[in-house]
Write a structure and sequence with these properties.
Elements: E1 14-16, E2 25-32, E3 35-43, H1 51-66, E4 71-76, H2 91-102, E5 127-129
Parallel strand pairs: 3-4
Antiparallel strand pairs: 1-2, 2-3, 4-5
Helix pairs in contact: 1-2
């Protein structure tokens, strides 16, 4: 499940974009002063094929682009890529990275960031901001 928590002063200027939201993705349009943007929170279950999530990200990116709005996506990708600071890259990470590139998005994670998990020996940085 996904969620976006907002300060109470922002709730009157925030609209849930139902057509883009699912149980695993929450998408809102936020207006503050003279600025509007699209915020999305996406959970990508590691047990499911990543393709469905990538289609959802494409739809969200197209919405933001068609309305000329900046887009910020916070996501738990359950994917690994050295570009995000993981110790290794897996096929899921490659697919997520390809989808970001195809949608003209970039990740904001800085390499070698704080790991989101250190279970066992691997360093896992699966939380990505695009």
């Amino acid at each position: 499940w996904s969620a976006i928590a907002l300060h109470s002063s922002l709730t009157d200027n925030t609209w849930l974009l139902d057509e883009l939201s699912t149980p695993d993705s929450t998408v809102v349009r936020l207006k503050q002063n003279n600025t509007e943007l699209v915020l999305a929170s996406i959970y990508m279950d590691g047990k499911n094929d990543v393709s469905t999530n990538m289609e959802n990200i494409s739809c969200i990116a197209k919405y933001a682009s068609s309305h000329a709005l900046p887009l910020i996506i916070g996501t738990d990708t359950n994917a690994h890529h050295e570009l995000w600071g993981s110790a290794s890259t897996n096929s899921r990470g490659v697919k997520v990275n390809e989808a970001l590139i195809e949608n003209n998005l970039t990740w904001l994670n800085k390499g070698k960031s704080q790991p989101s998990s250190t279970v066992g020996n691997p360093v896992l940085c699966v939380d990505t901001t695009a």
